[in-house]
Structures are given as structure tokens and as C-alpha cells.
Give the backbone structure.
Amino acid sequence: ADASNALPLFGAGAPSVGSYVEPIDLEMLTEDAVFTSPNTGPLQWLLGAYGSATWEKANSVVRAGGLGAAQILYSERRADFRNAAALYGEASFAVTDRMTVTAGFRAAASDAQTTSDVKAPQKHQQRLYSGRTVSSGITPKLALIYRLDPHHTVYALASEGSRGAGVNTAGPIGTVFATGAAAGERRQFGG
């Protein structure tokens, strides 16, 4: 990728051509099991379990200069190992032939272990990182579904999602990065 505009962040002097390369080796094992109720009666339900294990290795390099004369301004060797597990469920009740109420949940946990070795050879700098982030939580779901006719349905849905924490180790040495921060907006309707 073209990294020419970012070269001053890494200490490059005169304007030059820059490149960024990040080959990634990724291995993932994922399983999801779902159990559902028979499709009879006004109450329908499902229960599920999810699990995954991910191994990721990345070797990032920022270079300045043309072919043959390129200088390495930045490199990062990073390894991540992530585990995730979740249990989830949902129940729907047909109040009438047209109206259904659905409630559900997801209980999830994740664990991420990261090691990183960032080098800035032109500045003789190095930043080592080794750490772990663990997160867990329960997220709800509530829906009201109304079938106007066989071809039109309206619904109201309230749900919450979550994402496991991560670590940002990339970027110029000496630059402060936030980890595990999030921003959002919540609106309340009615009283």
C-alpha cells in the first residue's frame, strides 16, 4: 500500500515514496451449535453455544525510497491468540396470528493475548509489548413484530451488542494510542 503521506510520522526527511506491507498468517477454529424447538404452537425458542480460537501473526513494514534503495522506517512483529465463547437464547411468543413478542440474550466472554515488537531502525527505537485483555458481558434483545398482511411486516427492536477489547500496538514509537475505548449514542423514546 502507498504510505508516502505517512512517512514524516516515521522520521523520513525529504519527500519520498513510501510503502506499507502487512502479511498476515491466520488460523481459526470456530464452532456454533444451535438447538431449536419444534415448529408447533405459539412458543418457539432456540438455544445456542459458540466458541472460537484464533491465532494471528503479522509482520508489518513501512519503507521509504524506491526499489533497491528502500530504508525500513518501521517494523512490527505481532502475535495474537484469541479465545471467545458465548451462550445465547431466544424465545418468541405469538400473542395473536399477527403479533409476536421476542426476547433473547447473549452471554459472552473473550480472552486476547498479544505480543508485539515494534522497531524504528532509523531512530534506534524499540517498543516491546506483552499483555492480555479479558472481557465478558450479557447483552439483551427485545422485539415486537406485527404482520400487516402476508407481504408486509413492521417491527420494533431493542438490542445491545458488545465486542471484546483489543490492543493497538501499531504506529510510531512515542505516539499514545487508546485501548478499549468506545463512543456511541443512545436515544430514549417516550417519557
Q: What stands out?
A: Strands lie at 18-21, 24-36, 43-64, 71-94, 99-120, 125-149, 152-159.
